[in-house]
Design brief:
Blueprint (H helix, E strand, L loop, with lengths): L17 H4 L14 E6 L3 H12 L4 E7 L2 H11 L3 E4 L8 H11 L4 E6 L4 H10 L3 E4 L4 H12 L4 E2 L1 H11 L23 H11 L4 H8 L3 H15 L4 H10 L12
Parallel strand pairs: 1-2, 1-3, 3-4, 4-5, 5-6
Helix pairs in contact: 3-4, 4-5, 8-10, 8-11, 9-10
Amino acid sequence: MSGGVSGMSDGMSGVSGREETGGQEGGRATEGGRALRVVVADDQAAVREGIVMLLGLLPGVEVVGAARDGEEAVALTAELAPDVVLMDLRMPRCDGAEATRRIRERHPGTEVVVLTTYADDDSLFPALRAGARGYLTKDAGGEEIVRALRDVTDGRAGLSPSVQRRLLEQLLGAGPEGTDGPGAPGAPQADGLTERETEVLVLVADGLSNQEIAGRLRISTATVKTHINNLFAKTGVRDRAQAVRYAYQHGLVRAPGRSVT
């Protein structure tokens, strides 16, 4: 599915709770693994049902409940124990950030991915501080949403490239003092990273996917994954978000607005 969720028909009726999702027969297990069980939370009925319908068409996802606000999202999480809650932020009674905090505090086995219209700092950082592991905007396509759901349940951060860049801008101190900038000729590689591993890390920090990195460096995606696993082991980071922070803290990448090649 390449289309985003924001364009779903306004004529759809709202859904709330397990019964009204109908079990989502479209949620099929992927080869070698069970379907992810997801609760969708959004206060706009048309958008909520649109997301449910979109996910129901995708393999590897089963929508088990839908909530009209944060209170219902917390209650459905307690009742259904989903793998992931796909959470809107601006909802009545209990907003998405507070609902995320409660879910992560009370049900640590359930991850939260934010799916919102807003990518501004006032929305992004409270949600991440509350415990959300993923953050997407509603122009995300179905494949991007499923990838984020899989990432967070596998222990990685499910952040879109644009959100990663906003995080980098906040973390950025333009690199350590006294450095000549990232990729300076002759600069020592941090933590024993090879030159190729450093190149991969720079591209990860620039928001590129494994496939995009493979194309840029003219190597296979399997080789990219090997380099990423190696650099994770050497630097002690656990996911791409931590790798991005590491790259900035060690002056391996440039400030936003300066090209990285």
